[in-house]
């Protein structure tokens, strides 16, 4: 019913790996994302995703890019929302990684983007936004 009205299911934990979870909780977030994507497709509902945790490392970014690209190819993933923006994001190294991540996410065929080009463009963004990023970090720390 919702699919015929253009509804989109927004699901979280797209940055998580199964092996990163404690064994005793029997948590498999990657498998859960796959299961939800399959059910959404069967129901004719679009799928959007978001991160569950704050992260600033390239491993989580790669997991998101891989999952989103894979699901987009299968016509299941329609959007991604980055949550948990806080002062740590605006630290210089984190901001640079985030700028690269956004550039890669904006390109179709995410895994095929030239890393040197992304690096150059991200450094340009980091340089251009330096003062604004410092102000945001200060504002978010209060």
Can you describe this structure?
A three-stranded parallel sheet has the order 1-2-3. The protein has two domains: about 1-85, no CATH class; about 85-140, no CATH class. The N and C termini lie far apart (about 45 Å). The protein has about 140 residues and is mainly alpha-helical. Helix 2 runs parallel beside helix 3 and helix 3 crosses helix 4. The protein has helices spanning about 30-45, 60-75, 90-105, 115-140; strands at about 10, 45-50, 75-80. The chain is globular. Helix 1 links the parallel strand 1 (about 10) and strand 2 (about 45-50). It contains four helices and three strands. The longest helix has 26 residues, at about 115-140. The mean pLDDT is about 80.
Overall radius of gyration: 17 Å
Major sheet: size, sense and barrel closure? Answer: 3 strands, parallel
By DSSP (H or I, 4+ residues per run), the number of helices equals 4
The portion of residues assigned to helices is 40-55%
Total beta strand runs:
3
Unreliable stretches, pLDDT < 50, 5 or more residues? none
Approximately how much beta-strand content do the residues carry? 5-15%
- Order of helical and strand elements: EHEHEHH
Structural class, by secondary structure, is mainly alpha
Average predicted confidence as pLDDT? 81
Name the overall outline: globular
Total number of distinct structural domains: 2
Strand order of the largest sheet: 1-2-3
Termini Cα gap? 45 Å
């Amino acid at each position: 019913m919702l699919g015929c009205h253009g509804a989109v299911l927004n699901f979280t934990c797209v940055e998580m790996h199964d092996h990163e979870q404690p064994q005793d909780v029997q948590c498999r977030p990657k498998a859960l994302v796959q299961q939800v994507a399959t059910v959404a497709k069967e129901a004719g509902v679009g799928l959007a995703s978001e991160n569950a945790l704050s992260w600033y490392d390239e491993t989580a970014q790669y997991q998101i890019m891989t999952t989103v690209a894979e699901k987009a190819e299968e016509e299941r993933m329609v959007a991604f929302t980055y949550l948990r923006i806080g002062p740590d994001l605006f630290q210089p190294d984190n901001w640079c990684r985030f700028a690269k991540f956004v550039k890669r996410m904006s390109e179709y065929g995410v895994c095929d983007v030239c890393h040197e080009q992304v690096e150059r463009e991200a450094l340009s963004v980091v340089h251009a936004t330096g003062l604004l990023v410092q102000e945001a970090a200060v504002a978010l720390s209060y």
